[in-house]
Amino acid sequence: xxxxxxxxxxxxxxxLSGNSRGQKGKVLEIDTKxxxxxxxxxxxxxxxxxxxxxxxxxxxxxxxxxxHISNLLPEEPKSGKPSRVGRMRNAEGKLVRFYxxxxxxx
Length: 106
Fold this sequence. Notes:
By secondary structure, the protein is mainly beta. It is built from no helices and 9 strands.
């Protein structure tokens, strides 16, 4: 059984540690097995590519590298600050995520 993650694809997140500390971006992809995420514009790495249909000349291409999800926290839309996430049942009895700082549903 896989562990429930505190972030999902499409979430706005803030990087807490590493070379990209303090940067904000949107989660593009999540690898649940490795517990890593790819965040838009964060942790840029250089990749050497051979010529192909997409890059006819090949060369060195900058793209996002993955970051461990323990280094990411969702960004609260109102304050713009990172907040931990909890889970609770809403009025309809559905399990929803909420920001622990403000108590607001995600």
